[in-house]
């Protein structure tokens, strides 16, 4: 049993509850998520989508996830980070409105240098150079993780 106390008139309360119509559409933003294999791109997106962290497999090729927030929806195109896939990243940049670059802060010096080169390449790409970038130094919970200053 549900009771509503409405003032001044009960029909105004009913109308306010039932006749508002659909909520206004949330704006959608298209983002691209890049980084080397094992940096944590898939885990990040799974966490943002409230998916189970079990059975996460590195992305081969690309995947697209809609990440819902209260006031917006982020359509995130995650691109695989393997050597043979990175050369095709630029084919997926068109239409992006922002970039998430994920790096493994506990990776080897060689991998960190490769990530740095890929980041600089993305920052200079004509389709990305004017867009906002989020650079995420992932795996900060690992003992070998570097600080932000070291990265």
Automatic annotation (TrEMBL):
Signal peptide: none annotated. Keywords: GTP-binding, Magnesium, Metal-binding, Nucleotide-binding. It holds the Pfam family Arf. GTP binds at residues 35-42, 81, 138-141. GO terms for molecular function: GTP binding; GTPase activity; metal ion binding. It comes from the Eukaryota. The keyword Cell membrane does not apply. The keyword NADP does not apply. Mg(2+) binds at residues 42, 59. InterPro entries: ARL15, P-loop_NTPase, Small_GTPase_ARF/SAR. Belongs to the small GTPase superfamily. Arf family. This is ADP-ribosylation factor-like protein 15.
């Amino acid at each position: 049993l549900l009771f509503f106390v409405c003032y001044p008139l009960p029909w105004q309360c009913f109308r306010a509850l039932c006749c508002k119509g659909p909520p206004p559409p949330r704006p959608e933003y298209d983002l691209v998520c890049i980084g080397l294999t094992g940096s944590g791109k898939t885990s990040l997106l799974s966490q943002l989508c409230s998916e189970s962290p079990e059975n996460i497999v590195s992305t081969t090729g690309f995947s697209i996830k809609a990440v819902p927030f209260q006031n917006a929806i982020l359509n995130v195109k995650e691109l695989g980070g393997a050597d043979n896939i990175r050369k095709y990243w630029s084919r997926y940049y068109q239409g992006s409105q922002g970039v998430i670059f994920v790096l493994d802060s506990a990776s080897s010096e060689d991998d960190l240098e490769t990530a740095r080169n890929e980041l600089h390449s993305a920052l200079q790409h004509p389709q990305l150079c004017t867009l906002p970038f989020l650079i995420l130094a992932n795996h900060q919970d690992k003992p070998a993780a570097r600080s932000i200053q070291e990265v």
